[in-house]
Specification:
It is a single chain. It contains two helices and six strands. The protein is an alpha+beta fold and about 120 residues long. A six-stranded mixed sheet has the order 4-3-2-1-6-5. Strand 5 and strand 6 form a beta hairpin. The mean pLDDT is about 85. It comes from Kribbella voronezhensis.
Length: about 120
Amino acid sequence: MSTFDPWNYREDAGYTQGTNIVGYKIAATDGDIGKVDKATDDVGAASIVVDTGPWILGRKVLLPAGVVQRIDDADKKIYVDRTKDQIKDAPEYDPDTSDYDDRDYRDRLGNYYGDYYKRGM
C-alpha cells in the first residue's frame, strides 16, 4: 500500500501542472458535490476549493489534491475518492480567513483525510 500524500496530485489522476480546472464539477463516490471555485497546483500544497452551492448551504470546502482520483477533461469533471459525508464532516474551511494558507488548518485537514486512507476508506 502506498502512502497518502494529501497535498500533491496522484501521478495517475490525469492532472497536468498548469491546467485550469476552475469550473470543473466535483464528484464524490456517492454523487456530485459542487464545482471548483479555486485551485492551486503548488508542489506540496496543491488543493481545490469547492463551491458546494445548496448541497451544504453554500459552504465552500477545501479538498487536498491527494483525494483526486481522476480528472476527466472532456466532461470537465473531477472524481474524488471520498463520500459526501466525509467531505461535509471535514474541518470547516473559511474562505474569508487565511485558512487556505494556514499551516495548522492544513495539517488538521491533511490528517483528517489521511486517517480515512489509513483505514482503507
